[in-house]
Amino acid sequence: xxxxxxxxxxxxxxxxxxxxxxxxxxxxxxxxxxxxxxxxxxxxxxxxxxxxxxxxxxxxxxxxxxxxxxxxxxxxxxxxxxxxxxxxxxxxxxxxxxxxxxxxxxxxx
Length: 109
Hints:
single chain, six-stranded antiparallel beta barrel, Thrombin, subunit H
């Protein structure tokens, strides 16, 4: 797995499975978010990405609403997906992420 230099997980992650969609320079992609923390998430997708690439991600919440987040590719596993590190989270986005982590049903590994 390729990983950005000095990218370390410092936030607790919750193992979940949520529908998602993301956009990069190339186009829009459907995906699933595999786990999430206040610092980032893992996006299951077959699409190719580059380390450091800017990503606009939307996660579908249980309410049906979409949470929009921005970040960059921190790690990449070809054919599996990529780790995304969030950047510039607003107070509202942080609050929604905290609520998601508190209430989302954790999947079994």
